[in-house]
Amino acid sequence: MQTTLRIALRFLLAKQRAMLMSLAGIAFGVGFIVLTQAVTSGFQGFFIQTILGADGAIRLEDKVQLTTVPIEEGAFKISVESARKYKEGVAEPRLQMEAIRSIAEVKGVSQVLRGNISIQSATREDSAQIFGIVLEDHLTVSDLGKQIVMGSADEFRRSPAGIMIGQVLADRLKIRLGESVLISYAGQSTRYRVSAIYETGVRDVDRSRIFMHLGEARTLLKRPFGATFLQVSLHQPDRAPELCKVISDMTDHRATSWQERERVWLSVFQFFRISAWITVSTIIVVSGLGMFNTLAMIVMEKTKEIAILRSMGFTRADIGTTFMLQGGLVLVTGLVAGWIFGALCTWGTESIPIRLRGVFSTDHIVVAWDIYHYLGAGLAAAVVVAIASWFPARRAARMEPAGIIRGASQ
Question: Residue 82 belongs to what H/E stretch?
Fold first, then answer.
């Protein structure tokens, strides 16, 4: 094996420039695959974290009402489900919360009373939504406590008539911390004080949601009982779809997972990941074509050397292995260089300051450090190099030394 490796290295050095070009292509291709997957996965993960921090893993709403019809068959009489209707809201939120908390995977449950209102500051009037919450419960199902940018949760907790308003809505109304606003619902107006301003990073949330103590919300919305929905957080959010069925069967309410609610955005991120992977992989494919051409040229130029090796006792497998080792040497060197290049690019990209506001909020490019990005890029390069090396190696192995000597192999 050592002799075969030395011969492969000697043949490889005979085409240094061409092999260096192929090596550079593999290194850049692997590096850029790692970088693009790190960025797309990073933003996808950050988006998921933002959504979970704002809306929780599961939302329970609308009581299921089954409509049955009787069917008679001889002496037997049964009832079967004919339709499924939904009654808006959660009628007995506390009982449902106790039942949900009995599930080991559940981290927290919060009841929310929602209503559309009109809010007026000294300069402008706008529409918004009231979210009546019990603060301690809601902090277990969201990142609201961490999302406060002005004021504090303690200030909101101490103020019965206090509200928490989103940064986007506060800017639109030109409201500052501690100022009062007028909230109107069904012809009745009540004045509240801004105790905190939050920013989730999701513009639609920061533009429309106003958090208020549940008791105040019941008074304002004239709904002394029930809740609009229950927000549930899980220790393992990825298990939300399977737990939705368990919770729905337990409570007779419709439960939706965060994967179902955000199906469109998750599909968009998945599309960008796949398209970026395919696009960048073309660099490796082009490098593989260059390697194939170089190895094919080596086979043509080294026919006499191959004949000598066969005459010395080298088998077809030995000759094939020699040319496969050339591809392997380029692959290993290219992978190591590509992984280092990809890691450096990922680190550098993560350090770039950039202010993004919209679907999510961040002040720098978000990346994901995942070993599978490196393994996936390595697998793609290995497949391309193996194919590019196999055909020249097969041709070299099939050469007959007698034919080469007579000049008939070409």
Answer: strand 76-87
